[in-house]
Amino acid sequence: MRHILLLLLVLAFGGVLRAQSPDEAWLEGTVVSKTDKTPLVNAFVVLRTADGVDTPFSALTDEKGYFLLKAPTGKYRLAATFVQQTIILRPSLELPAGRLQLGTLPVELTRELEAVVVAGKTPLVRYEGSTLIFGEAAFAKARGGSVLDGLTLIPGLQLEGANKLKLYGLSTLAVYIDGRPQRMSQDEVIALLQGMSVSEIAQVELIREPGVEYSGVTTPILNIKRKTRADEGIKGFTSLVGTYHQLFSEQLSTRVNLNYGRSRSYVSYTLGNKRYRETTTLSSGVVDDLRVDPRVSHQVGLGTDLTLGKGHSLGVQFLGNYADERLRFSQGMSNRIKWSNLYATLFHTFRETTAEGSRGSSDLRRDQGAMDVATKDDNRFARIALDFAHRLSSIFTLYAGAEVSRVAVDSRLTSRADELMLREWNIEGYTKLGFRLSKVSGFVGLRIAGEDRKGSLGSGLGDFFRSGTELLTSASLRYAPARDHELSLTHSSSYTRPSYRDLLGYTSVASAAFLRKGNSELRTAYRRGLSLNYTYMRAAQLELSYTDTEDPIVEAIPPMYGGGITLRRYNLDYSRTLRALLVLPLPLVSQKKFSWLALTILAAQRQWDAGHIEMTDYSAALNTQFVQHRHSFSLPSDWTVDLGVTYYSGVLYELYRIQRQWWIDASVSKRMGNLRATLSARDPFNTNIARGSYNPEVNGLAFERNWHSPRLELTISYSWGKKSVKAQDTRVRYDDLKRLTTGASEGMNTPAQ
After folding, report:
1. Among 117, 148, 181, which residue terminates a domain?
2. What are the C-alpha distances in Å from 626 to residues 155, 548, 580, 584, 690?
3. What is the per-residue pLDDT for 698?
4. pLDDT > 90: what percent of the chain?
5. What does the pLDDT average to over 70-98?
6. pLDDT value at position 552?
7. Is the per-residue pLDDT at 104 higher than 60?
8. CA-closest candidate to residue 570, choices 513, 501, 521, 607
9. Is the dihedral of CA 350, 355, 356, 357 positive or negative?
10. For residue 473, is pLDDT > 60?
11. How many CA atoms within 13 Å lie on the side-chain side of 203?
């Protein structure tokens, strides 16, 4: 690890000392609105020849309207495209060797946009190492729909089941909005995304290898950035979702945005009534038929962003959820779960510094029907964080931050008189140095996480204590040997602490067939990864990656006593994977009224696991393949059609071997002005049945899980409200500042909408 960090630093500082080519020029400036001097964010700035022909020398403006691009010396025209308008910034420009600063470039925006015709192309995606950044054009086919409709257009991202966003069928995604994690269940996250209009998206970052600034998150992150420019007045979005999945479910969402002067506010409400069924059949003859009937949920959100000045803003957001869920089993048993959550955050930004404070609470109650047993968990959470970014030069940018968080959990079981509890303090800090040269860029980062954790597991089980420090490193080196080619090498590390529920030393009924038992001996798992990525035209990619997880936390079936099946968490010694990933998007047709995109994703993985379960040695190795092929059509009269098939071979999921699976999915959408209707189907032939076994060499326990597809869903969305254009000052956040010197890449393109 020390050698990798040292190599990156040597490359970075070596690049600074390198002499600049005599025919090489750098051009920088800031594009703002002429009327109110606010920055134009994500404006596409391009150099043209003296005859007006576009060149490949271009850049996107950042959150301050700043751009930086490199080109050969010579005579050019400078133009920009913003909100479907093309503006000539300089009709004649002499570009000498060295650095040319144009300063502030005010532009006059036209308010009548309907008559504007743009003949150019808009970038769909660009890369920053292993991070993919999708602009507004990537979600054009979802116009009039929800944020969730737009996200499912991202290549390789799909909604499995009803509530799991997965990447390449391999990794579950963590969802962030404006750089903040959404601290709620997967059902509530999906409901939130279905209730937001896709028109609110400025861009989406798919962070496949989270760095040190993300608190040791182990899964890929989907960071949704809302627009910092908004239309003046009141605008609303309403969606109605009806789902048939053996049973009927409904969801109604409404969101109202109020933008006036320097304030940007919203209020939202979602009502859900969800029902579904799944069946697990064991080789022992036990059938666990689970019905969620019903799950009634309420979700309320509100927030306000207030611009105090240029680069100076204040914001507050609240989100509350309540769910009442009844689980019914074939054996006549039933559980009832009541869950409530309230989360609030206050943030203040001044130039490159952001301070944030958040507080949350959740209460979970489980009633186990005729057994007259109930558990109740009270959770409290508080966090204070400070993040900072500073441009040291045109090459180097420094990022730093610190946070303090407090977690308190109190758990009660009616069958015991004692109370179980957890108290946890976390103090963390990070620093990251980013650099960008003509063809080489990257960063090195370090995070230190200290914890003080103690808790009580109840009578006879004692207490547990843990106090320690984790050291996490990350680094990335990117090299662009030619215009459409880029190589990147990324190192990442993260950790996963055992949840308090996994530590608890008592058994709680989770279904009619399985008992869940705690394990107070669980240790923190550490993951380290290295990936080599090659991209062509910022669209096709080939990636080779290796991950090594120490003490991974897995679920296993310990030796069975009394005929019951018990599930318990354990630590293995290690889990290692070697993976090759190939993504091939192919635009077959790209016309104004008709487009056809084919996408193929291929993945091959070798996995090695080893460890001990109770007194038994465990060792396994398995090869896995994953294939997904999709066709997306944009048709005249605002019709869109998507067809896809997904296949993966036998996989090793923790300690369970699952046989090969495949399914198809399809959707058709029609937009009629402000109204959009989508009909989608997943697995219409019920082929996606998980068949597998656990430890067949010892217990020989086989299982079959049926999700009772097909799943049919009808979504109707309606957008309403005032649509006059009004520019507003932007809110600068530390996680946006890394784009200060990012140039635009043509990438996979589409005709501008």
Report:
1. 117
2. 14, 21, 10, 14, 15
3. 57
4. 24
5. 83
6. 93
7. yes
8. 521
9. negative
10. yes
11. 23
Does residue 150 register a pLDDT over 80?
yes
Report the SS3 class of residue 127. Answer: strand
pLDDT, tens digit (0-9, with 9 covering 90-100), for 346-359:
989 887 888 999 99
Contact 640, 632 (CB under 8 A): yes
pLDDT digits (tens, 9 = 90+) for 192-216: 888 889 888 888 998 888 888 887 6
* Position 589 in a domain: yes
- Rounded to the nearest 10°, the torsion over CA 539, 540, 541, 542 is 180
For residue 78, give the amino acid letter.
Answer: L
- What is the 3 state secondary structure string of 488-536? EEEEEEEEECCCHHHHCCCEEECCCCEEEECCCCCCCEEEEEEEEEEEE
- Map tokens 């960063």 to a residue: 443
Reference 263, options 230, 235, 288, 241; nearest CA is 230
- Identify whether 658 is part of a domain: yes
Give 244-258 pLDDT, tens digit per residue.
888 899 999 999 998
> Which has more confidence, 239 or 232?
239
Structure tokens at 389: 């970014």
Copy the structure tokens of residue 243.
């789902």
3-state secondary structure of 153: coil
Instruction: Report whether 193 contacts 148 (CB < 8 A).
Output: yes
Q: Measured between alpha carbons, how far is 46 from 54 in angstroms, rounded to an integer?
A: 7
Supply the mean pLDDT for the chain.
80
Q: E strands of 121-183, at which residues?
A: 121-123, 125-128, 131-135, 157-160, 164-167, 171-172, 174-177, 180-181
Q: What 3 state SS string does 425-483 have?
A: EEEEEEEEEEEECCCEEEEEEEEEEEEEEEEECCCCCCEEEEEEEEEEEEEEEEEEEEC
Residue 700 is assigned to a structural domain of this protein:
yes
Token pair belonging to 359? 């507080």
Tokens of 539: 């669209």
Total domains in the chain come to 2
How many other C-beta atoms can be found within 10 angstroms of the C-beta atom of residue 660?
Answer: 12
- Which is it for the CA torsion 152, 158, 162, 164, positive or negative? negative
Is the pLDDT at 498 greater than 90, yes or no? no
Q: Considering 117, 138, 166, which residue would you say is the last residue of a domain?
A: 117
Q: Which domain holds residue 672?
A: 536-549+573-710
Question: Is the pLDDT confidence value at 610 over 50?
Answer: yes
The set of residues, in sequence order, having a beta carbon less than 8 Å from that of 392 and lying 6+ positions away, is: 398
Which tokens in the block code for residue 167?
């990447």
Looking at per-residue pLDDT, the higher value among 726 and 596 belongs to: 596
Give the best-scoring range by mean pLDDT among 164-168, 183-187, 398-402. 398-402
Report the C-alpha gap between 147 and 168 in whole angstroms: 19
CATH code, domain carrying 57: 2.60.40.10
What CA dihedral angle connects 648, 654, 659 and 665, to 10 degrees?
A: -40
φ, ψ (nearest 5 deg) of residue 186: -65, -35
- The strand pairing partners of 157, in sequence order, are 167
Residues 384 and 356: beta-carbon distance below 8 Å: yes
User: Is residue 192 a part of any domain in this protein?
Assistant: no
